[in-house]
Design brief:
Blueprint lengths: L2 E6 L2 E7 L16 E2 L6 E6 L4 E4 L2 E2 L8 E5 L6 E3 L5 E4 L17 E8 L4 E11 L2
Parallel strand pairs: 4-11
Antiparallel strand pairs: 1-2, 3-6, 5-9, 7-10, 8-9, 10-11
């Protein structure tokens, strides 16, 4: 182990051990997670009153990488996503006859995302409700 010593006539000797680890930069490479069952600007038509929307899936080439799901967008407050499983559901009963989205057109604009704490993938989706 490298050793550093300092001598001074007025001060005692101080030994400091400095561990140094040289690593291969490739040990720190990170593969971006990828949403696998959602495409950008995808429109999902869901029956009125149905709570379950989609089970968002993703892959990550890194071994033992924890993936976390997120939900944003202008209408995100009306939905929820399980951060660990990616299950997207409504936070309230929604129907085509009484649109509650920001612009009142029954097109709920959302962005679903996945991250591995280092990198991120996201897709914009639109959820529409239709009478049975």
């Amino acid at each position: 182990m490298p050793r550093y010593s300092e001598r001074d006539d007025d001060v005692a000797i101080t030994d400091v051990f400095v561990p140094i680890r040289v690593v291969n930069f490739n040990e720190f490479s990170n593969q971006t997670p990828v949403l696998t069952n959602v495409v950008d600007n995808q429109v999902l038509v869901i029956p009125d009153g149905q709570n379950f929307i989609l089970d968002v899936d993703a892959t990550d080439g890194d071994v033992a990488q924890d993936l976390l799901y997120s939900l944003t967008g202008r209408d995100a407050s009306l939905f929820k996503i399980d951060r660990e499983t990616g299950e997207l559901t409504t936070a309230a009963v929604l129907a085509s006859t009484l649109p509650r989205d920001q612009d009142g057109n029954n097109q709920y604009e959302l962005t679903v995302g996945v991250h591995d704490r280092l990198s991120f993938d996201a897709k914009h989706i639109v959820v529409e409700f239709a009478s049975n």
